[in-house]
Amino acid sequence: MPNLRPTRRSFLGGAAASAAAFATSGSLGALQAAGPVHQGGGRLKIGAVGLGGRGSGATFNALCAHPENVLHAVGDAFADRLEKSLADIVEGMQALKRGEQVDVAAERRFVGLDAIDRVLASGVDAIVLATPPAFRPAQIERAVAKGVHVFAEKPIAVDAPGVRRVQEACKVAAQKGLSIVSGLVYRYHEGRRRLVERLHEGGVGEILAIQGDYVTNELWYWEREPQWTDLQWQLRNWLYWPWLSGDLIAEQHIHTLDMMAWIKRDVYPTAAVSLGGRQSRTDPKYGTVFDHFATVYEWDDGTRGHSYCRQQNNCWRNVNEYVIGTEGRASVFQHAITGPHEWRFDGKVSEPYQREHDEMFAAIRGGKRIDNGDYMCKSTLMALMGRMAAYTGERITWEQAANSKEVLLPEPLDWNGAPPPSEVARPGITKFV
Fold it and tell me: Sign of dihedral through CA atoms 124, 129, 132, 136?
């Protein structure tokens, strides 16, 4: 059986998105046109767009969530990735003796930049969106317009205008009764849920500071094939281009930042200052992203969030969050509090990547809805605020970040054309937009 169980950091490589989807968002009236395709029991048709590592893993989880969940249509920018990942999903479900849940006829396998539209048009009830983050705003809009329930990987945008588009789409999803579930998986981990409850009950007293580390190795890279255009090469290696990924502070470190915000009762910081740059991944093949950030987030109540992320080999590694309070300390990954209110979670933890889909489809089948829209948008903006601070060298406020006019995704994106120009940011020279 192939390894379809996602790790904390598994990656997609998909880039399926409609060329029209890159245009500016349509009116709210257009989004509001259709009601939910499905709400209740019975057979649920699932679509998936973006079948890289994360996309195939999330699709596998969606099928495992209920025996009447059926994979109906798939899409990706690249035929080779689509076929390989689909074969892996089939093999995985057959190993569970549930192979009948994959029912993707050849005419429902869509390749190209219009894959999102064709998957939605095939008549799906719910969709897994795991293409590069740049495409998420348009894809969420289109799914909501069709009345389709959404599982969206994180982050949900690479720029503030994209965040604003998703916020509007989520409002319409709420009006339609559609579930919006985020790939910010820490929130579906039982140990962290119980720890956060304890913290909100005063487990460490008043919270003074939070340290969040996502300090890890370099990630994957696909060597360029002679037949690839510049755009295809960048799409294959989307991690390394801010216009596609939002940089590592958004595409990976957002897990840590979302945890900080959750600990703070989803009250978000009002400003950020940050240091960042490229020390190890300086080869042009690594695009224009940084390989480290060190960011201080400021809350109005005086709390400081110290966040560190790095993707460099042969260095110290750590992924955890630490909470310092007036009456103790907490280690998030150990699910433990030390001090006067000492506590440790010792209950059973179900696999959170699976749990987010279990809860999503249980809600749909129960005629209920899950709405992760608010925090998935604001945690994305928190990450982008840190990136803006690092790129410019300025102290960036929440209001500045939320109202930024910088648009990283070109409109429209031409499959046969050139990718957008991109330069490595230079703090003190790069301007806030």
Answer: positive
CB-CB contact of 119 with 110 (8 Å): yes
Please say whether the beta carbons of 3 and 55 come within 8 A.
no
Task: Show the CA angle centred on residue 421, arms to residues 75 and 128, nearest 5°.
Answer: 20
- Give the C-alpha distances (Å, rounded to integers) separating 77 from 130, 144, 153: 12, 21, 17
Scan for tokens 């956060």, then name that residue: 196
Sequence-distant (≥ 6) Cβ neighbours of residue 411 within 8 angstroms: 22, 23, 24
As a whole number, mean pLDDT of residues 324-352 equals 96
Question: pLDDT per residue over 121-160, tens digit each?
Answer: 999 999 999 999 999 999 999 999 999 999 999 999 999 9
HEC string of 143-177? HHHCCCEEEECCCCCCCHHHHHHHHHHHHHHHHHC
Task: Please give the distance of CA 415 from its chain centroid, rounded to a whole number.
Answer: 24
CA distance 383 to 303: 17
Q: Could you tell me which residues come within 8 angstroms of residue 41 by beta carbon, excluding any fewer than 6 positions away?
A: 68, 365
Alpha carbons within 13 A on the beta-carbon side of 378: 18
Average pLDDT taken over every residue of the chain = 92
DSSP string over 356-393: HHHHHHHHHHTT---B-HHHHHHHHHHHHHHHHHHHH-
Distance, CA of 421 to CA of 109 (rounded, Å)? 32
Distance CA 93, CA 1 (A): 9
Beta bridge mates, 338? 329
User: If you count them, how many residues does the chain have?
Assistant: 433
Q: How many CA atoms lie within 13 A of 240 on its CB side?
A: 21
Please give the backbone phi and psi of residue 261, each rounded to the nearest 5 degrees, phi first.
-65, -40
Q: Hey, which bits of 65-191 come out as E strands?
A: 69-76, 109-111, 126-129, 149-152, 180-182
CB 204 within 8 Å of CB 329 = yes
Tokens representing residue 96 in the block: 């569970």
pTM over 0.85: yes
Main-chain phi, psi angles of 189, to 5 degrees: -100, 120
Going along the chain from its start, the domains and CATH numbers come out as: 20-186+355-371 (3.40.50.720), 207-325+380-402 (3.30.360.10)
